[in-house]
Design goal:
Structural class: mainly alpha
Number of helices: 16
Shape: globular
Number of strands: 0
């Protein structure tokens, strides 16, 4: 299927970029929510499964971030192809990939080094640090960077095949089959060794994520249609769609928490409802622009979007530090659900604020590349 590049006026492009800023802003707020519980598991009592279920609708965050990355990369490739008036070859795609990798490698090396240094100071061995790096656990959320590097690389390899619409749907179906396999693994349909291997490989394992390559390409190719649908839907209809999606995610995550009595990791995002949440979020918010929101919300949206990289990394490191402190302070105390929710909300606001503050500070110190 041939691409249909659209020439946009600067104002039109700006409005569309704001829609992506809005998605990034609400996604980074959601990401922080999952890291903002600084209590040991013993203090959570029997509330951990309930928390996972209540906050399940916010798990759109990582899938949306991944889809936006592919969306923007496909946009960059399409723009390059239009400017040169030729079909973009695999070789030129790899050149764009190299530029994207160079953009990512600085913050990755910086934040992985900071987190590794803190772990060594805290008494972890070099081997433990190396394992935590490859498992994406050097700091909370570090797996995201290992996933995005894999997705970008694989996208370049399969793009010429994937840009055909039938192949996009084939990829989505393939992801569904893989998730059925994952459900079978955690339901003890296979020998324990299979589950142990999957758990050891942790969240960076590509089998949970490749569908977001297809979704990023499909949404870019059909964005005009998605935008029209978004404009045609009333706020009431959008709210209803979001509520149904949230209920679906809560129901599926309730099943997962029952199957995985110990912990959701590494199956946090191995859910059909996570995949569904991506097109829903794009359809519901594609019509958002600066004129449709109050000025303070617009400013906050742009601020959170601009520093989303720094917030993502800093909150992950701070979360581990605060959890270590919380474990020492509250190891002999248990809280009820109301208390836990109150602690989580306060911690959520504090962690987001601190992460944003440190991101702005680092930019002013000349470290823009690691936070923006």
């Amino acid at each position: 299927m041939k691409e249909k590049p659209v020439v946009e006026l600067p104002s039109q492009a700006s409005e569309r970029l704001f829609f992506l800023d809005f998605l990034k802003a609400i996604s980074i707020i959601s990401v922080v929510s999952f890291h903002a519980i600084f209590l040991p598991r013993s203090a959570l009592n029997a509330s951990e499964g309930i928390l996972e279920t209540l906050f399940a609708p916010l798990r759109f965050c990582v899938p949306v971030f991944l889809t936006i990355s592919i969306f923007l990369f496909e946009k960059q490739i399409a723009k390059s192809s239009t400017e040169t008036l030729t079909e973009t070859s695999t070789q030129s795609n790899k050149a764009l990939l190299k530029k994207r990798f160079n953009r990512l490698i600085t913050p990755i090396l910086f934040w992985f080094a900071v987190a590794a240094g803190l772990k060594i100071i805290n008494g972890n061995s070099i081997l433990e640090v190396i394992v935590s790096i490859f498992q994406g656990e050097i700091f909370t959320g570090a797996y995201y960077f290992l996933v995005i590097l894999q997705l970008l690389w694989n996208f370049v390899l399969v793009r010429d095949w994937l840009i055909k619409e039938n192949n996009i749907f084939t990829t989505i179906i393939a992801q569904g089959v893989v998730l059925l396999f994952v459900y079978a693994v955690i339901s003890d349909f296979f020998v324990d060794e299979v589950l142990k291997v999957v758990v050891f490989l942790e969240r960076p394992l590509i089998i949970y994520w490749f569908v977001y390559i297809a979704l990023g390409v499909y949404i870019y190719q059909n964005f005009d249609w998605i935008e029209r649908v978004s404009h045609s839907l009333s706020k009431t209809n959008k709210a209803l769609i979001l509520c149904i999606t949230a209920a679906t995610m809560m129901a599926e995550y309730r099943i997962l928490t029952l199957l995985l009595a110990d912990s959701l990791r590494p199956f946090d995002y191995a859910a059909f409802s996570c995949i569904l949440s991506v097109p829903i979020m794009f359809i519901c918010f594609a019509s958002v622009n600066e004129k449709s929101l109050p000025l303070p919300i617009v400013k906050l949206t742009k601020l959170l979007s601009k520093y989303s990289l720094g917030i993502f990394c800093i909150n992950g490191i701070l979360a581990q530090i605060f959890l270590s402190i919380g474990t020492k302070l509250f190891s002999q105390i248990s809280f009820n659900l109301t208390q836990i929710l109150l602690i989580k909300v306060i911690s959520w606001i504090a962690l987001l604020g601190l992460s944003l503050m440190f991101s702005i500070l680092l930019k002013r110190l000349g470290l823009k590349k690691v936070v923006c």
